[in-house]
Q: What sequence folds into this?
């Protein structure tokens, strides 16, 4: 039942009230919605794909939204709450717990920071800072940048101008260039004719030490999970990192690369300009992805891939000579 | 002779004065430049491609800029004004009617909005609003955002921070994320060595109800026509929509997708990340375009395409296995 | 020993102190780090690739960082300073001369410009201008835009809103749209586990007369050289131009195109949307690059190429029909 520092959580709710059609016998209080790894016994979790059955085995949750096909992967301590479409019901339930996480309402409590509150921070002109922000020593924030409530920025950071940062925790010695938009809601919704149902984004962005992020990048926060940029990873300009992406440490991501949601990128991965990585993939450590590639499958440790769809570098060169 | 609310129109001009080399006999007053569909009998229209001959049949215009090859597609009520290069002459003439639409001069009459003028609107800090803007009830505008003169925004909208919106009409319940630049001049000009001749952009952007637009997107206004984003269509981050694009309703456009000018996208179309759609295409309803694709031909209703150049999904998978 | 107007240079340093392991006999004063073409006899230059041996032949530098493999390409007047990894040692030495060019510290001396200082310039609201900027007659700067110290902007320019411009010299009649970030540090560093070593970027961006740059573009300044956009070249929205790129005159660069570092693009080149150009290439004059292409090799004058990897247009069409 850890606190979500960025989004107000309602509840607890009775499981019976959340799923009135299920006609559950017991009166069960649910305190939060969490993924399989982080759920406690008081949370509702979810299993929507066979990709996550390893996490299911060890979940501490007592109740799990899932389908009839997947329910047998749950451990004994975890009871299935059966639905037709896990993401649809997950969306509806999460909206009850977090009614304000589906749209990024701009923080209108922003103020020009007082020097007394941030004695060792340098601010450009017109910087706007929300409530309860932490900004470390020797950090400098460029003009017109907006740091929304509860954001935390470490020591020795340089944040450029015209940036917007919300729902984000930033380590030390991080350099973020001008115009970045970090911690915004991702592109997640249930398509419904006339009016889509937005998925609440209750996760955050975590940017570790020594990271560099180029100009005009966009890094969306996680939906249920977090989006993470690992230590000493450098992103060039105009990179798009979708919700729930986890990038390891010591990676080099060149300009205009795009990541679709929920992929996991290993350590020491280098990605050439304009490459794209599809959603829900696992890219190993020490992988090299050539510029312009479109990666649509998992990539094993130490592999070099290129092309659209990306294949091993050898095959790409062979095919190019045909 | 409807008014152009964003650009001051000069004239009327005599057709004889606009085309002195043509040596027209009659003294004809021309009041505006319009496309074939919307021209009235007092306007000059244009036909520059065989793609638009269906619109030519029913035009109400009495005069049409066109070439000797295309003139026979005009109806009896419409007389051809023959030129070598329709777009070049159209550009020159449009510049006479609209001398201020070829460059986006920043609106320097912007002011911080007074609460009394917008009683039911919430504004962040340093919001700048031009003259004659309309902003609906329960709409919220994020800090540092610029809304230029005559822009109209509906009820229940959320506009992020650091955005610029000009020459745009926005419906209700629209959500625009931080850093978007909407309603700017498109990439249209006559290439001339040393100094290109810019095409005036006298159209606008129309964003319908329930639309979502991700962070750092750019949506250019139309040149003669409008750029339109249909109802309940969602765009992810860093999407580029060029001038005159019309996107239907209920579409899903993933991150970093780009549209070249003047294409028409149907309803319920989904487009994967980083895909590109060439100019002057017609993409049908219920089309699915895979991520990273480059679409260079029309796509029929209900088709799934992928690849560069995009082919049917079946053929793409077959080719990938070679 | 020309002055670098944007970055403070330390020194001179003794060559012996810069490379203590080399055990040089003479005491040589080095005043600056320059490329082969622009180095004077008082500067240290570098030769890291066989691509640049033509420049080596005529360099005026007396000392050149290079490898044992390349040293014989140096002229008699120029002595080799032998190292294992030219770029690594160049990076370390350049950091000594220019200790403040590896991170873009936001200019915190910005002020709202006084009308008296810029009598013939129109400013929007909240424009911020650094020290020693030059802004020409009849130029207009949009709201919230930041012009950092020593930037020079010519006459009759239109600079949009929400832009950031640093380390840049801009000619006359230039039009830059909203949200551009120009003159920032490029994506150059020596990868080191845990903490990369950033390459100082001591070059600038030079934008010549009559250039147009679309919204939300990013143009990085040069590392040792400059980044140059030639006369009457037009860039569409969301284009990324990396460090040291030189684009000729009269080019048309469509939306979302990306250039990796140090390539040289000729005159009258047209590049379709979303195309990418790899680093260190030479693209000739009058080249046409199709939309979505990935150019990985030099392209000769007058050639049309397309595809990924880009091949001649003929071959692309042939391959597409297979």
A:
């Amino acid at each position: 039942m850890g606190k979500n520092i960025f989004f107000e959580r309602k509840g607890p709710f009775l499981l019976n009230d959340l799923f009135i059609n299920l006609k559950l016998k017991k009166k069960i209080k649910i305190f939060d919605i969490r993924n399989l790894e982080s759920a406690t016994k008081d949370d509702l979790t979810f299993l929507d794909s066979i990709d996550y059955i390893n996490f299911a085995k060890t979940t501490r949750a007592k109740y799990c939204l899932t389908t009839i096909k997947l329910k047998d992967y749950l451990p004994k301590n975890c009871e299935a709450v059966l639905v037709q479409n896990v993401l649809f019901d997950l969306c509806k339930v999460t909206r009850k717990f977090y009614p304000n996480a589906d749209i990024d309402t701009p923080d209108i409590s922003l103020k020009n920071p007082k020097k007394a509150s941030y004695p060792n921070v340098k601010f450009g002109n017109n910087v706007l800072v929300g409530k309860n922000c932490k900004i470390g020593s020797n950090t400098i924030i460029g003009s017109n940048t907006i740091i929304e409530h509860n954001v935390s920025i470490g020591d020795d950071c340089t944040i450029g101008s015209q940036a917007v940062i919300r729902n984000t925790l930033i380590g030390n010695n991080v350099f973020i260039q001008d115009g970045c938009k970090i911690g915004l809601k991702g592109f997640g919704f249930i398509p419904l004719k006339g009016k889509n149902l937005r998925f609440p984004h209750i996760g955050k962005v975590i940017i570790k030490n020594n990271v560099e992020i180029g100009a005009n990048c966009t890094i969306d926060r996680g939906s249920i999970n977090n989006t993470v940029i690992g230590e000493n990873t450098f992103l060039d300009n105009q990179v798009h990192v979708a919700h729930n992406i986890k990038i390891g440490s010591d990676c080099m991501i060149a300009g205009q690369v795009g990541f679709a949601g929920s992929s996991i990128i290993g350590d020491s991965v280098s990605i050439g300009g304009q490459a794209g990585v599809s959603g829900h993939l696992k890219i190993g450590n020490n992988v090299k992805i050539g510029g312009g590639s479109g990666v649509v499958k998992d990539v094993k440790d130490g592999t070099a891939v290129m092309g659209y769809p990306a294949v091993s570098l050898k095959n790409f060169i062979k095919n190019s000579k045909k």
Q: What stands out?
A: Residues 233 and 251 of chain C are 4 Å apart (CA to CA). The mean pLDDT of chain C is 96. Chain C has two domains: 13-97, 167-321.
